[in-house]
């Protein structure tokens, strides 16, 4: 069958015709142009525009015009309105979250992924892609030292991977211990007794999953953490005894390998031991810290992860992939049975008998992107060794940054030896406030510093609370960020703190939530 040319549509869809090919090149070049212009001479990580002003400007968009117009014009508008007021993830002062600059190799892969538009749910929508994803999953299973029984799937990220871990854990427990078919009958009568254990510093998606799984957030038992923000095994033992005394049913233990705030890694071998003793599903949330497995220097810190029943790992964090990209791995692949349903049009039982792989059975998504390709291409381009070096470099920068902070009398280091990339600290008030306690004054200053830096576009710094006290956080994921860059951010923090102290923080109410540089200039 030959593809006939259709002049009216050839310039809208990619195909073999000359007009289609040249339109595609033009469109891609115009998109590249928007990005290049945005990146050229970028001084600040954010324009600092106010919410109200941007809302007003965006309100002028007609999102669905009656008649279309040329793509270049619209792309130029995207440049002026969207790109100009997006945070620049590659800028060294964009250092708030686990939000990475993407590798160029992965951006090239994205172009291929979207143009080919393979859908990972069935073999007939993604033949080679299905096999490449499967190979990537095998490589990941090896990386975490799983045995040959392990299987997995690419996901949209840690949220979905954690939900899948707890979903499999719940279904497995209910089937094997309560003899209940949850896929057919819904939640069992004992559901109110089910419990999930995780550290108090675990990611909020553990609670979110508990609520989505019909168990409720109260099903999550938070375990205390030690001074280094790792799960306390003593407290875990105490809680397990208490649950047993109360005849409750702890079915899942979640260990975190790299907490969002401190990068701390729970004592995985001890957790694995407790999980085995109590017949609990052991899920390791390595969304962030999983990348350590690439590094020969750091992988020992993940020891014990190979005993996990399931693992979450994200690639849109320390693996430098564009959002979204993650994976969920299961030690015994057969456990996927607990969520599998057969759809006659996607994964009929005949296919399975013939050995045709349809990945839909391993995912809670149906239509799914071929994200494995971008990780593949990035690994091909950099190679493991260079990838590892890059990650190690960021950990080194974080360690040195914490040292700088600890040595600075105007700052207070909360984690003087960071586990991963997160450096948590506070600005110290240099003089007291007449009406506020030291702590309240410090809280106010630190909150305002962050807000002002954002509203001036000078730095995107995160906020968090440590034992109730407002703190600032730098997440130094960007391999291009140097210690000088960190020093510059810290200078801004200190100068802003000083300016605020001089005005006693008065009248800063406006800036506190939606403030702007000009507001602040008026005040000071
Ligand atoms: C980022 C993160 C998550 C959530 O993952 P998403 O990819 O944002 O869905 C879960 N757990 C940890 C430890 C994380 O760092």
Ligand roster: pyridoxal-5'-phosphate
The total tally of domains equals 3
CATH architecture of the largest domain: 3-Layer(aba) Sandwich
CATH topology of the largest domain: Aspartate Aminotransferase, domain 2
Order of helices and strands: HHHHHHEHHEHEHEHEEEHHEEHEEHHH
Supply the helix-strand structural class.
alpha/beta
The level 1 CATH classification of the largest domain is Alpha Beta
How many E strands?
A: 11
Q: Which range does the strand content fall in?
A: 5-15%
**Integer average pLDDT:** 94
Q: Kindly state the percentage of residues in helix.
A: 40-55%
Strand order of the largest sheet: 1-7-6-5-4-2-3
Protein name: L-2,4-diaminobutyrate decarboxylase
InterPro entries: PyrdxlP-dep_de-COase (IPR002129), PyrdxlP-dep_Trfase (IPR015424), PyrdxlP-dep_Trfase_major (IPR015421), PyrdxlP-dep_Trfase_small (IPR015422), Pyridoxal-P_BS (IPR021115)
Keywords: Decarboxylase, Lyase, Pyridoxal phosphate
GO molecular function: aromatic-L-amino-acid decarboxylase activity; pyridoxal phosphate binding
How do you describe this structure in short?
This protein is an alpha/beta fold and 524 residues long.
Describe this structure in words.
The protein has helices at 7-10, 18-39, 51-59, 71-82, 104-116, 127-143, 158-177, 182-185, 205-212, 233-245, 268-277, 349-354, 372-406, 438-455, 483-502, 509-514, 517-523; strands at 151-155, 194-199, 220-223, 249-256, 281-285, 310-314, 326-330, 411-413, 422-427, 462-466, 469-475. With 524 residues, it is of the alpha/beta class. It has three domains: 11-86, PLP-dependent transferase-like; 119-369, 3-Layer(aba) Sandwich (Aspartate Aminotransferase, domain 2); 378-522, Aspartate Aminotransferase, domain 1 (Alpha-Beta Complex), CATH 3.90.1150. It has a seven-stranded mixed β-sheet with strand order 1-7-6-5-4-2-3, sandwiched between helices. The longest helix is centred in the C-terminal third of the chain and has 35 residues, at 372-406. It is globular. Bound molecules: pyridoxal-5'-phosphate (PLP).
């Amino acid at each position: 069958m030959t593809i006939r040319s259709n002049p009216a549509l050839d310039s809208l869809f990619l195909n073999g015709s000359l007009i289609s090919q040249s339109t595609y090149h033009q469109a891609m070049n115009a998109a590249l142009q928007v990005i290049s212009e945005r990146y050229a001479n970028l001084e600040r990580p954010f324009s600092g525009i106010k919410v109200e002003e941007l809302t007003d400007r965006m309100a002028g968009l007609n999102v669905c015009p009656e008649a279309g117009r040329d793509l270049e014009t619209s792309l130029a508008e995207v440049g002026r309105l969207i790109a100009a007021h997006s945070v620049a993830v590659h800028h060294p002062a964009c250092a708030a979250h686990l939000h990475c600059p993407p590798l160029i190799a992965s951006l090239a892969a994205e172009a291929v992924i979207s143009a080919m538009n393979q859908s990972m749910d069935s073999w007939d929508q993604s033949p080679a892609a299905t096999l490449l994803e499967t190979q990537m999953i095998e490589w990941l299973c090896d990386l975490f030292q799983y045995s040959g029984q392990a299987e997995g799937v690419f996901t949209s990220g840690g949220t979905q991977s954690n939900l899948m871990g707890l979903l499999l854990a719940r279904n497995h427990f209910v089937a094997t211990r309560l003899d209940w078919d949850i896929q057919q009958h819904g939640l069992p009568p004992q559901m109110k007794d089910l419990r999930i254990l995780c550290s108090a510093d675990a990611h909020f998606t553990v609670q979110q999953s508990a609520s989505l799984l019909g168990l409720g957030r109260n099903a999550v038992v938070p375990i205390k953490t030690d001074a280094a923000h790792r799960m306390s095994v003593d407290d875990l033992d105490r809680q397990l005894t208490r649950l047993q005394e109360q005849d409750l049913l702890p079915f899942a233990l979640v260990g975190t390998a790299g907490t969002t705030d401190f990068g701390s890694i729970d004592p995985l071998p001890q957790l694995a031991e407790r999980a085995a003793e109590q017949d609990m599903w052991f899920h390791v949330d390595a969304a962030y810290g999983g990348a350590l497995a690439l590094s020969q220097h750091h992988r020992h810190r993940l020891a014990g992860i190979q005993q996990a029943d399931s693992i979450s790992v994200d690639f849109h964090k320390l693996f430098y992939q564009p959002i979204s990209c993650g994976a969920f791995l299961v030690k015994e692949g057969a456990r996927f049975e607990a969520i599998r349903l057969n759809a006659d049009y996607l994964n009929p039982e005949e296919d399975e008998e013939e050995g045709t792989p349809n990945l839909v059975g391993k995912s809670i998504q149906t239509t799914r992107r071929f994200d494995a390709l971008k990780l593949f291409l990035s690994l091909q381009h950099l190679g493991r060794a260079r990838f590892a070096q890059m990650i190690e470099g960021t950990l080194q920068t974080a360690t040195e940054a914490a040292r700088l902070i600890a040595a600075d009398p105007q700052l207070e280091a909360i984690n003087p030896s960071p586990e991963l990339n997160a450096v948590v600290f506070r600005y110290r008030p240099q003089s007291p406030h007449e009406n506020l306690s030291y702590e309240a004054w410090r809280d106010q200053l630190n909150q305002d510093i962050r807000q002002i830096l954002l509203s001036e576009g000078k730095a995107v710094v995160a906020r968090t609370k440590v034992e109730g006290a407002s703190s600032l956080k730098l997440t130094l994921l960007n391999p291009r960020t140097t210690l000088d860059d960190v020093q510059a951010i810290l200078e801004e923090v200190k100068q802003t703190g000083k300016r605020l102290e001089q005005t006693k923080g008065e009248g800063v109410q406006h800036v506190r939530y939606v403030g702007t540089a000009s507001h602040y200039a008026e005040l000071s």
